[in-house]
Structure formats: structure tokens, C-alpha cells
Amino acid sequence: MKFAASLFSILLFINGIMLTFQYHVYSDQLSEQDKAFHYDQDIDVVYRKGKLIVNHHLNSLPEDSMRFIWPTKSIKKSCSKNDKNNCNRLNKTITGLQKGKKEEQTLSYIIPISKTGIKSGQILRDIFLKIENGTPVHTTIHITDQTHSNGQWITGLPEVASKKLSLVQYAMFSGNGPVTSLYWRKSKMKKVFTNDQMTLYGKNDIPSDLTKSLNGLELEKFEHVDIIETEKKRHSAGRILFTSEINEKTLEQKVIISQINQKYKFNTSPSWAPAIVASFLTNRTLGSTKAQKMTNVLKDYMNQNQTTEWKKGLEEMEGKEVTTTRLDNLLSKTLHLKTSFFNMNATNGNNIAPLLFEDKRPVYINELQQNNVQVIFKDGRILYSIKPILKKLGYASKVGTHGFYITSNSRSFRFPMDEPFYVYNNHRYDIISQPIEKYGNEYYIEEAWLVRLFLVNVEKSDKRIDIKTSDHE
Questions:
Q1: Are 382 and 375 contacting, i.e. CB atoms less than 8 angstroms apart?
Q2: pLDDT for 159-175, tens place per residue?
């Protein structure tokens, strides 16, 4: 009896520890979400030869502690000399702010540039301070040029004022959202179009019908961008975009995809991923030929409820890392069927891998569970990823000049893939359907052919799929 009581006490103690651990994990997850916040910023930039001197004013800060993301090239980071009273929250390492009620903080830093000065057409990328988990609601930038270089500054924000004085040149920009980069050129460009969503700088006036079309673009919750006409292909920088084509479709696409790239993190995703996300969020079809075809595949398959759920899931990814695996997980959840549509297309070059669905049951080969065997459904057929199965069955496989080759000590196969026959031990056999097909970067074999050619039996239950070698050849 005493033993039972002692055991019961121990179990209660362990259970209490587990509950406490789970609570703290849950609390940590909540706190991570709660850390997301918004703030305002006012940035003073003074351009002197060889450097930009930045005084960065942060406003409407939360009381929680926060971490800075300093520009990589920034030096002489400190609390502003003119704002010593607001430095009580700054930690000793100048890496962030401690908890406190002071809602304002001013930081100073220098961005070194070439001693010869900024070159005409140069972009200074990622030169402003950011706060981890923080998003600027409103940004104002003041640029004071003390080098007498004249020229034109562009930030991506609407320009609200500019003035040339005897000693300095001044420009002011103000608008919603963050700013990461600056662009400068010696010769000023003409504003050929401007509205709340974009300012277009070009060489010549644009046709009136294009002006009318651009004014008619309805892009909700999109922040202002600057678009610069250029003859050479150039990479955009945040809200500063370049184009060699001045037409409605090109400009619309550049604005939308630029905004998506600012709202989501596509660091490791293929180039078509932002365009597909943008296509669903804006009810358009954007991007490269591959991006458009993939979008159409999904649109053709999904019903209205699935489309709504899919778009909601994409919206919830805002601010997070978007990978092909996360897109596949969301798509599988939306369709209630497992799929690797995005991962397969990531390894398929310019070709389109079809929308295939996978069997979730684990696969066993001769009673051993396999973690890398995929079972998919295509046009009413069941197909297995063949390479891992062959390896377990004692075969070697490779892709050669004349097809897909499979060999063992006593058996050899060649499948031309695009012709109606296969070769077994140097004998040719005509066929109606292809035993092996390629989707994405993987090769698959139809179940009936797997059983017939490689002398196995396939047994299925609700919980698993068993592949077992036969006793006879």
C-alpha cells in the first residue's frame, strides 16, 4: 500500500513537471507572437563627402524589451548627443532597448561611402536601422546634402518637399511603411505619373490612356513605390523599382510583386513563389510563364471554399519565412490531401510538375519502415518512388543516354521513357503504358509494374503499405 502511494506521488510530481514545461513552452510561443508591434520613425540623413550621418528617431515604442538590427555597414553607433534624456532604455551593448515606459528613442550612426562620393545611379541598400519583430507604420525622411552635388534623391516614399539653398540641398519624404534604401542620380528625372501608389520617373510623357489606366489600378493596402525608367536591366531595392517597359501590365506587376517581397520573406524560395502568392492575394495571374501555369493549375482544381481557405493561410504567412515546404503544408491542409506540388516544381526547372496527391500511410519493405518512399496518385493510378525501393531490393539505378537503367547481379532493365517498349536482360518487350514516369526530380513506377517486374507483393491495410519480395522469380 505504501509502495502504491509512493508511486502515485511520484507520478503526480512528474505530471506536474510536464504540465509546467508545456505551460512555459506555450507561454513562450504566445510571448513571441505578442512581441510583434508597430512604431513610427523619423530619419534625418546628412550627406557629407564620404559618409551619411543618420539620426534615427523612433516613436510610439512599446514598453517591452526589443532588439535592434543594425545596418551591416553602420559605424559609430550611439545614443544621439541631442537626446541624452531618452537614453535610459538603451542597453550597454547598444543592441536593443530594455523594458521601460519611454516611447521615444533617438539613435545615431554613420554609413560610410566612397571618399569620391555617391556615383550617379548608385543605390545604397539596407542602410537604416530596423527593430526585430517591429514594423514601421509611418516613416519620414529628411535628406540634407552638404556636398553641393545637386541631383535627385529617391526613397520609395512620396516626396513632399525639396529646397535648394546656398549651402545645402534639402528634400523631405513621408508616407506609410518602412524604407530600406536610397537612390541618387546627378541629372534629375521627370515625374511622368504620380498617385498614392506610385511615382513614375521617365524620359518622356506617357500617353493619356496609360495615365487613366494607372489611376484605375485598385491595389488595396499597398504602399507607395518609386518606379524609374532605365535602359539597362537593374535589380530593385525595396520600394525603388526599375523598368525598361512603360505599360500598364508591366508596371502593375512590378508594384504588386515588390510589395509582396516586402511583406513576406522569400529568402530560399524559387523566383516564381512571390508571383504565385501575389496572384492569389490580388486575384490576378502574375509572374513568369511557369508561375502563371502553376497558379492556373491550383485555381482550376480548387473550389471556392478551398480558395478562400488557401488565401487566408497565405495572409497569415505575412512577415514570416515562405518556403516551398510551408506552401505544400498549407496546400495539403487546404485540400485535405497530402501533396508536394511546390517542392516538386522547385526541382523541375522550367517544366511544370503536375498537382499530385500522396498516400499518407507509411511504407514497409520486408517489414522495415521506409521514410523516403513516396506513394502518389495520378489519373487513377498508384505510383511509387522507385529509387529507394530498388536500393532496398538490391538493385542499382541510374539515368543514362538511352533511358533509365536498373541492374542487379542477375537482372538488368532499360526503360527508354519516351518509347513504347522496355528491355529486360537484352530482350525487348513492347508495352502500351510506360512503367516508369518522372515528376519533378523523382522517378516513379506504377504499382502493377512494380509487382510484375520486380517480383514483389504489395499488401495494404488502413495503417500501412507492405512491399514484400516474392519467393519465386
A1: yes
A2: 998 888 777 889 999 99
